[in-house]
């Protein structure tokens, strides 16, 4: 491995000509920290997702997994027709009631730390739902404490709500990748 590392050349997703095509799995982590905004709003990330996500349509060996605010990277990535790459997919993300709950419970001593775009901004759930063709049929969630993920039927795409879902998301993602690449 040490020898291989000497010949490997690191690639930056911001390099001209960078493509996600060589990869079978793209994982979009979440988080409420303000730094995640640069990924959610990045034109480069949007371009990469607009190119890659449609390639996950089944049958495909390409997969995308996202959790929490990571789902917003997809919902904010617009196809040439202006629709989100998620417009016809089923998904979950951080539920608005959970986001608002932690925001109000900590606001006195953390300010708007738990609101990525600041106090008064849309919740992750609302932001994602606005970009779906029919949120009532496409957005799935649970307010329970048991791990919850959503696997889309049309795309090799799986999503989770927040950190307690991460282990189940990882297990289901591994299974999805194994099925899609024929392992």
UniProtKB/TrEMBL annotation:
InterPro entries registered for this protein in UniProt: Class_I_gatase-like, ThiJ-like
Protein name as annotated: DJ-1/PfpI domain-containing protein
């Amino acid at each position: 491995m040490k020898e291989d590392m000497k010949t490997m050349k690191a690639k930056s997703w911001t390099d001209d000509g960078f493509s996600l095509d060589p990869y079978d799995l793209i994982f979009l982590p979440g988080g409420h920290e303000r730094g995640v905004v640069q990924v959610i709003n990045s034109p480069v990330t949007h371009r990469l997702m607009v190119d890659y996500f449609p390639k996950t349509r089944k049958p495909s060996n390409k997969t995308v997994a996202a959790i929490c605010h990571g789902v917003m990277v997809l919902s904010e990535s617009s196809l040439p027709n202006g629709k989100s790459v998620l417009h016809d997919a089923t998904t979950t993300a951080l539920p608005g009631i959970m986001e608002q709950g932690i925001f109000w419970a900590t606001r006195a001593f953390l300010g708007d730390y738990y609101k990525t775009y600041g106090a008064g901004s849309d919740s992750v759930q609302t932001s994602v739902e606005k970009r779906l063709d029919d949120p009532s049929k496409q957005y799935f969630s649970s307010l329970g404490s048991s791990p919850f993920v959503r696997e889309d039927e049309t795309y090799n795409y799986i999503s989770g709500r927040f950190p307690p879902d991460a282990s189940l998301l990882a297990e289901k993602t591994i299974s999805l990748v194994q099925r899609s690449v024929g392992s």
